[in-house]
Specification:
The structure is a single chain. 39% of the residues lie in helices and 17% in strands. The chain is of the alpha+beta class and 333 residues long. The protein folds into two domains: 14-81, Arc Repressor Mutant, subunit A, CATH 1.10.10.10; 99-333, D-Maltodextrin-Binding Protein, domain 2. Helix 1 packs across helix 2 (29-36), helix 1 (14-26) crosses helix 3 (40-54) and helix 1 crosses helix 4. The longest helix has 28 residues, at 70-97. The radius of gyration is 23 Å and the shape is globular. The termini are far apart.
C-alpha cells in the first residue's frame, strides 16, 4: 500500500479565520454565527474548510459543547491577530479619507449602556452626523475579543480593561458605588457609612461574567464581608434591584445607575459610603496604534463635556492631570 502523500497546508481565507475566531470566542456554533451575522451551517462549513486547509483538527464537536483543541487555541490567537491587522488596514484608509465618517462599532458593557448611551447617542447625532454608529452591548471578555479581532473599534467599559492583549485606554470619569437597601432597613438614607458596614449584610451580586460583580466582590473582601449565599444571581441591574426590593438582600449600584434603577420602585433606599467611597473608573479602550487614535481622543474629550450633570467626577485627559476629578475611586475591569 502506498503511503498517503504529505498534506500541504493551504492559506486560509478571511471568512474561515473570522468563523473560527468566533467559535473560539463563544464556544458555541449558534452564538458564534449570530455574532458575525451568518448562518450556523455556513459557519460550520467555514470551520471545517479551515481544518481541511490546515490538515489539522481545531474543534472537538460534542452534543453539548464545543472544545477547542490545543492547536486550535494557538490558531485562534493567530486568527485574531490577522483579523485585527486586516481591520487596521481598512481603518487607516478610512481615517485618512475623513475623520468621524463611516462605520464605528462601539462596544459597551451592560452596567454602563442604559445610563450613558443617551449622552453618547446625542453627541453622535449632534456633532458627528456622518458617523455610522453601531452599538454592541456585551460583557467585558466578549468586548475585548471583538476589539482584538477587529469586530469592534472602540469600547466603553470599566478600567483597567484587563485581558491578555494590550489595549490603549482613555479615562472618562470616576463614579462612586452606592449601597441599595429596602426602605425599612436600619441604614436607609444614611450618609458617611463605613465600608465595614457590609460585614453584617447579605450583598447580592450579578451573575458571573460581569465586571461589576468582580468589583463588588473586591469591595466585600476588603472588609472581610461575605456576599449573600445561595444561588440567587441576577443577569442585569434591573433584576438585582428588584431582588433588593423584595427583601432578599442589599446590593451595590454605580452612581450613574442610581436614578434609573432606584426610580423603578418605592421599595428602595440609597446609602452613601464615607469618603473615600468605593467606586470605579469608566473610559474608552481601543487597539494601540489605531489609525483613529486622534479621532478617539477628540471623541473622548467631547464625551466628557456631554456627561456634565451626571453623578460622576470627570477624569483627566491623558497628559492633563489638572483636570483630575476630586477624590479617589477604586478601579476595576
Amino acid at each position: 500500500m502506498k503511503p498517503h502523500p504529505p498534506h500541504t497546508p493551504r492559506t486560509p481565507t478571511v471568512s474561515q479565520l473570522r468563523a473560527f475566531a468566533a467559535v473560539a470566542e463563544h464556544r458555541h456554533f449558534r452564538e458564534a454565527a449570530s455574532a458575525i451575522g451568518t448562518s450556523q451551517s455556513a459557519l460550520s462549513g467555514a470551520v471545517a474548510a479551515l481544518e481541511e486547509s490546515l490538515g489539522a483538527q481545531l474543534v472537538e464537536r460534542t452534543t453539548r459543547r464545543v472544545v477547542i483543541t490545543p492547536l486550535g487555541e494557538r490558531i485562534a490567537e493567530h486568527s485574531r491577530r490577522v483579523l485585527g491587522a486586516l481591520h487596521a488596514l481598512t481603518e487607516e484608509a478610512e481615517a485618512a479619507r475623513r475623520p468621524f465618517t463611516g462605520p464605528l462599532h462601539l462596544g459597551v458593557i451592560p452596567t454602563v449602556a442604559p445610563y450613558l448611551l443617551p449622552a453618547v447617542l446625542r453627541l453622535v447625532r449632534d456633532a458627528y452626523p456622518d458617523l455610522e454608529l453601531h452599538v454592541h452591548e456585551e460583557r467585558t471578555p466578549s468586548l475585548l475579543g471583538g476589539l482584538a479581532d477587529g469586530r469592534l473599534d472602540l469600547l466603553l467599559l470599566a478600567l483597567p480593561a484587563g485581558g491578555s492583549l494590550p489595549v490603549a485606554e482613555i479615562p472618562l470619569f470616576d463614579e462612586d458605588f452606592v449601597l441599595i437597601v429596602p426602605p425599612e432597613h436600619g441604614l436607609a438614607g444614611r450618609i458617611d457609612v463605613p465600608r465595614d458596614a457590609l460585614l453584617d449584610l447579605d450583598v447580592l451580586l450579578l451573575e458571573e461574567g460581569h465586571c461589576l460583580r468582580d468589583q463588588a466582590l473586591d469591595i466585600c473582601r476588603e472588609v472581610g464581608a461575605e456576599p449573600a449565599g445561595g444561588s440567587t444571581r441576577a443577569a442585569g441591574l434591573s433584576t438585582l434591584v428588584q431582588l433588593v426590593a423584595g427583601g432578599l438582600g442589599v446590593t451595590l449600584l454605580p452612581a450613574t445607575a442610581l436614578d434609573v434603577e432606584a426610580g423603578r420602585t418605592d421599595r428602595l433606599a440609597a446609602v452613601r459610603f464615607a469618603h473615600p467611597a468605593p467606586g470605579r473608573r469608566i473610559g474608552l479602550a481601543h487597539r494601540p496604534g489605531s489609525a483613529r487614535t486622534t479621532e478617539y481622543g477628540r471623541f473622548a474629550a467631547a464625551l466628557r463635556e456631554a456627561l456634565h450633570g451626571l453623578p460622576l467626577r470627570l477624569a483627566a485627559p491623558p497628559g492633563n492631570p489638572a483636570r483630575t476629578g476630586e477624590g479617589e475611586a477604586r478601579y476595576g475591569g
